[in-house]
Amino acid sequence: MIYNEAMTYLFGLERFGWQLGLERMQALMADLGNPHRSLRAVHVAGTNGKGSVCAMIASALSCSGARTGLYTSPHLLKAEERIRIDGAEIAEPAFVALIDELRPLFDKHQCTFFEALTAMAFVHFQRQRVDAAVIEVGLGGRLDATNILQPLLTVITQIDFDHTDHLGRTLEEIAAEKAGIIKPGTPCVAGPLPPAASRVIYAKGGIIPARRNCRVSSLMMTPIGSYFTLTASGKTLDLTLPLAGPHQVANACVAAQACLSLQMDPTAVIRGLREVQWPGRFQRLCDSPLTILDVGHNLSGFRRFRWMIDHFYPEKRVNLVLGVLKDKDYTAMVRWLPKRLQRVFAVSPASSRALPADQLAALISAAPAQSCGSVAEAVAGARSQTGANEMICILGSHFLAAEALSATKRLTK
Length: 413
What we know:
alpha/beta
């Protein structure tokens, strides 16, 4: 199987959509000899922040000397990004070989795209003899394909409204789905939670509250990261975090508490957070004109992004390239666009779930908005119309990010 053929097959599994439930995954793993049972895993759920927290924990584990697997979703540029060991994504030949080997079982069990990738990650990590694996939940928790794990530690980062068609219409219902990853006798580190969600999570028992246990002092935030002192579990850590925003400081508290709960050396935690890489999160793509990419893809993500622009760039007017998915609360999301909008270039992300660009443009009243035929057209249009004291922001779905990154690279050569 060649690369293009393998990718066509793998992405063809998206036709099955999201099918929550563990039966197919359990049957598939049984056919493979249950490779997941050998994994010493940290299992991470949450509405927002779970990818960042996974990246931080994995970075710290690698810095501690542990050979560390990291499984996350979605990807920015290519599917191989989802499966990493010590920061390096799975090699293309190994990725293709896994698809080729496991394809008969994927077909036998009619696996979804996410189930197939999850199985590939578990098999790869077992064969590569990782010492630890950090596994991000795909959707929810209780019925997510990753929830066949028996982890060393679980983490719930934050809970808000998202995927309400799958997870429930109230915070209590959503929290109950996330809490499904909590196992009897296994500790769970919890981030800051709204009261309705907190009651559900803490009723499970064994919860380590990061918000209560962690104290932040001497905080200095910049557009490219934060510097602060964190006191947690009797340890004092002077941290440099190359991810910007107060939400990333909160994520770092959760990640650090998780690492300390695993009895990790504080020096490894300090180094791991300093060296963590997680693209697409308020990422500065270029300076002339100033261009920021952020994969905030739901209401809380848009709120955070607006705070960041208003706080870090209060003098800049914003030309915005925007694309969202139709299964998000997009009518509420557009009410949280940055305050100093100059123009909006609406696009349809490369997904069957994309909200059409013309519909998105019609929703925006805060500034002139135009529908663009492609992300490349939108980025080029934004660059041509961005003058002094203005900036470009690229905001929305992960599906938008890959095209935006490629377009920006071409235009800045």
